[in-house]
Amino acid sequence: MNIPTQTSESLDGLCSIPALLARNAAQFGKQTAYREKEFGIWQFWTWGQTQAEVRALALGFLVLDIRRGDYVAIIGRNRPALYWAMVAVQSVGAVPVPLYQDAVAEEMAYVLEHCGARFVICGDQEQVDKVLEVQETVKCIEEIAYLDKRGMRKYDHSHMNWLEDLKREGRAAETRLGAELDKRIAELSFDHTCVMLYTSGTTGKPKGVVLSNRNIIVTSKNSSEFDRLRPGDEILAYLPMAWVGDFIFAIGQAYWSGFCVNCPESAQTMLTDLREIGPTYYFAPPRVFENMLTTVMIRMEDASPLKRRLFHHFMAHARDTGPKLLDKKPVGLGARLKYRLGDLLVYGPLKDTLGLRRIRVAYTAGEAIGPEIFDFYRALGINLKQLYGQTEASVFITQQPDGEVRSDTVGVPSPGVEVRIAENGEVFYRSPGTFESYYKNAESTASTKDPEGWVATGDAGFFEEGTGHLRIIDRAKDVGKMADGSMFAPKYVENKLKFFPNILESVVFGNRRDHCVAFINIDLGAVGSWAERNNIAYSSYQELAALKPVLDTIQAHVEQVNESVAQDKILSGCQIHRFLVLHKELDADDGEMTRTRKVRRRIVEDKFADLIGALYGGKDRIYTETEVTYEDGRKGQLKATLEIRDAKVFGVAATQMAAE
Description:
Blueprint: H1 17-28, E1 32-38, E2 41-46, H2 47-63, E3 71-75, H3 80-91, E4 95-99, H4 105-115, E5 119-122, H5 125-134, E6 143-146, E7 160-162, H6 163-172, H7 174-187, E8 193-198, E9 208-212, H8 213-226, E10 234-236, H9 244-257, E11 260-263, H10 270-277, E12 281-283, H11 286-302, H12 305-326, H13 333-354, E13 361-364, H14 371-379, E14 384-390, E15 395-399, E16 412-413, E17 418-421, E18 426-430, E19 437-438, H15 442-448, E20 455-463, E21 470-475, E22 480-481, E23 487-488, H16 490-497, E24 503-509, E25 516-522, H17 524-533, H18 541-545, H19 548-565, E26 576-581, H20 601-607, H21 609-617, E27 621-629, E28 635-646, H22 651-659
Parallel strand pairs: 1-11, 3-4, 3-5, 5-6, 6-7, 10-11, 12-13, 13-14, 25-26
Antiparallel strand pairs: 1-2, 8-9, 9-19, 14-15, 15-16, 17-18, 18-20, 20-21, 22-23, 24-25, 26-28, 27-28
Helix pairs in contact: 1-2, 1-9, 2-3, 2-6, 2-7, 4-5, 8-9, 11-17, 12-13, 12-14
């Protein structure tokens, strides 16, 4: 499929985010650019007002002596003022470096010191406290600014400013510094750094990915035109500001297309706010869609028998008809009428409840999504698609065009992107969005991006014959061989397991082994709801995870997945022979996951080596002690005796096991 590419030469001088902001303020200055819910009320700002806010902040930064090339860290939840701060930082020729707000002080210290941040902008008191804590070792920080002044009255303000005060100082300095600000904005080119985003650090220390204005703007233009994004669209900005996806959607595409960015009141109110806004353009990682589906299934368990029958009856029809209607394929009159009735009784109310009624385009990425989960949303008539991307690509490597959407591929190369498959199956790409470098890491830059601009993704995949769609198998480093030479691809099995609402996370082992084993995390919400309905008392995650009925249910799920995996000739050897339910949730604070909720497989393997040994050693129980980090930062020991279970395997794997 050939899609016209866009180059920086065709962008009419729009070579920076501040330049796009000026265009938006001029062309549709009275249209809403940002909304934020505070104290239960939605506040809004037009593009004209946004330009005024950004300019005031930028002038305030000049008063603080932020220089060209400085790195300015930004830490907090999604709020318009923090997005404005990023654009204001760019306006003065400096580089914004957003950090994960839930990172502990030690993680923040590494990034702050690595980028040499002179200034830090914090969302609230909690973030200020973490920065003050690391200032004992990170000596480069000179000034701190904060957005929410609650709790800040008694702090030493000799090197600390409230953002509102900075804006007031900036407005007062317009006559004195306005010409200097205009000069700095005019100097910005495609080659200037737009943002520096740190990788999640799945395999080691995070790396600072340097992305230029060319990377962000050309990618935003191409991807916006691919999905026909427009000023009237609405998004909900709720994902971490330090993640490349949020930067592209809430700044890159928003400023290119001129659509409205809505910021929820808090993480706890996100789903309520989603229903109130009803976005037309929506992105969520698979975990969010999984959690939504889990909530739906829990509610259906509590519904009346009539409602359950209606739900299952119409969903069975929707799974066949819904995707065909989305793809504009022929559907009989009777099937169309039944689908409309289902939309009136089931699909429509369900989409209203989820806040997805107005969705025109939705994407998921970051991890592979279970096909059953993906198909569920498509069945409802939600135009959910998959994309494949990386921080180093400014997100987009492949996308699914409308009418060519499937659960088992990640689409065709995005506009302007070239993709090739190496002899070992690894996926390579190059595009206008390809990152400039890893900051202060020439060695990693050279090993990732060759002199011709080709970037090694670290993922294994292949192009389908006939369709030209890319299929990703797994991380290249995680794809291996079983002892008999058959392929080992753990993510394929893990995603199937996570389709079940009761299973939150899974980690499958088996490389160079005779068979596969698995760790499983139960979903506390789903399993806890089941326990309450059945009057089963429990006091903790650990106690709930060890209950016999819970283990029986998980075993049934594992065996159902085994039966499905057995039907794949290439991956049938990846069936799970033995498993255990972990006594704790895998947690980013304990180093077992990244801040973007990706499992650090090697760390999990080392940390729970005793459990893996027991799974392969034939034991039916194992006592273990694990260090955990509590919410207040204290460390503790969690002790447990875990039950290990055998699971039924099917087909080829069953035959091999019998022979052994």
